[in-house]
UniProtKB/TrEMBL annotation:
InterPro entries: PsdUridine_synth_cat_dom_sf (IPR020103), PsdUridine_synth_N (IPR002501), tRNA_psdUridine_synth_TruB (IPR014780), TruB_C (IPR032819)
Species of the source: Geobacter benzoatilyticus
Gene field: truB
EC number: 5.4.99.25
Function: Responsible for synthesis of pseudouridine from uracil-55 in the psi GC loop of transfer RNAs.
Keywords: Isomerase, tRNA processing
UniProt protein name: tRNA pseudouridine synthase B
C-alpha cells in the first residue's frame, strides 16, 4: 500500500491522532500527514502511506480552500472557539455592507503575525508550549496570500465564508484581524478544509470508511498514487534501460526533447505509469546548452 489517502478529519482529534489511527487500521508503520489541521477543525487531511511519505516534500499544496464561520464581538486567546474570551466589543452598529467591505480589504498579499497557539517554533520551542505557560513573545509578521474571500451567509454576529489562500495562512488569525479592523473583535467558530493542493473533500473518506474498505478488501480504491499526487511536475517517460538505471540509483541520460525546462526545475521520472523518481534539471556548466538529470528521490 503506497500513496495518499484523503481523510475527512472529524473535530476533536489532532492530525497526529489521525495518523496513529490510520497506522493502526492498516497495520503499517510508514504513515505521515501533510498540512496540520487544528483539533477543532475538520475536513481534508492528506495522509501518506508507504512510499507516499517520500513524495510529501514535492507536493504542491500552495493553495488551500477553507469554509469557515466567524463570530464578531469577541476575541479569544487562541483566536478560535476553544480559547478564553479576552475582550468583547459592540457590533450592533455595524452594517452588513461595512462588514463586507472590511473583509474584502483582506484579499491580496497581507502580513500575518502567527498566533501564540501555533506550532511555529521560536528558539526551537513551539509557540503553543510557551502560550500554555502564560508567556507571550514577539513574533515576526509573515507574508501570506489571500486569493479570494466569498461570504456565503451573514447573520450578524455570525459570518460564514469561503477563503482560498496560500500555504501557511492561519484562517483563525484572518478572522481575528478582521475583528480588530471592525473594532469589535472576532474569533473562528468553525473551520472546514475543502481543498489542499491536489487533494479535495470530494475524494475524502472518514476513518469508518477506511475500516470498512480494509475489511472488505477494497482498500486500494481509496489510494491516490504518488505519480498522480505529483501531477504538477513534468512527466518524463523512461525507456526500460533508463528505468533500470534509476532503480540502481543512476541518473538516466537526458534528452533535450524530454526536458524543455529551466535549470533547477523538478520532473517526474516514470515508467509504465509508475513513479520511479523525482529528478532535477541541471544545465551544462560549460554553457553549451546541454542538460542533465540529477536524482533527488528514488521510489521503490
Amino acid at each position: 500500500m503506497d500513496g495518499f489517502i484523503v481523510i475527512d478529519k472529524p473535530a476533536g482529534l489532532t492530525s497526529h491522532d489521525i495518523v496513529a489511527r490510520v497506522r493502526r487500521i492498516l497495520g503499517l508503520k510508514k504513515v505521515g500527514h501533510t498540512g496540520t489541521l487544528d483539533p477543532f477543525a475538520t475536513g481534508v487531511l492528506p495522509v501518506a502511506v508507504g512510499e507516499g511519505t517520500k513524495a510529501i516534500p514535492y507536493l504542491d499544496e500552495s493553495v488551500k480552500v477553507y469554509r469557515a464561520t466567524m463570530v464578531i464581538g469577541s476575541a479569544t486567546d487562541t483566536q478560535d472557539c476553544t480559547g478564553r474570551v479576552e475582550r468583547e466589543g459592540d457590533w450592533s452598529h455595524l452594517l452588513p455592507e461595512t462588514v463586507t467591505d472590511v473583509i474584502g480589504a483582506f484579499v491580496g498579499r497581507i502580513k500575518q503575525v502567527p498566533p501564540m497557539y501555533s506550532a511555529v517554533k521560536q528558539g526551537g520551542v513551539p509557540l503553543y508550549r510557551l502560550a500554555r505557560k502564560g508567556c507571550e513573545v514577539e513574533r515576526e509578521p509573515r507574508d501570506v496570500e489571500i486569493n479570494s474571500i466569498r461570504i456565503e451567509h451573514m447573520s450578524l454576529p455570525l459570518i460564514e465564508f469561503t477563503v482560498s489562500c496560500s500555504r501557511g495562512t492561519y484562517v483563525r488569525t484572518l478572522a481575528h484581524d478582521i475583528g480588530a479592523r471592525l473594532g469589535c473583535g472576532a474569533h473562528l467558530k468553525e473551520l472546514r478544509r475543502m481543498r489542499s493542493g491536489p487533494f479535495d473533500l470530494l475524494g475524502a473518506i472518514t476513518l469508518d470508511d477506511l475500516i470498512r474498505l480494509k475489511d472488505s478488501g477494497e482498500i486500494n480504491s481509496c489510494f491516490i498514487a504518488p505519480n498522480a499526487a505529483l501531477g504538477h511536475l513534468l512527466e518524463i517517460e523512461l525507456s526500460e534501460e533508463d528505468a533500470r538505471k534509476v532503480y540502481c540509483g543512476v541518473s538516466p541520460s537526458c534528452h533535450d526533447a524530454y526536458v524543455p525546462q529551466e535549470d533547477g526545475a523538478r520532473v517526474r521520472l516514470v515508467h509504465n505509469g509508475k513513479l520511479l523518481a523525482v529528478a532535477e534539471i541541471r544545465a551544462d556548466k560549460l554553457g553549451q546548452g546541454n542538460k542533465s538529470l540529477r536524482l533527488i528521490r528514488v521510489f521503490n
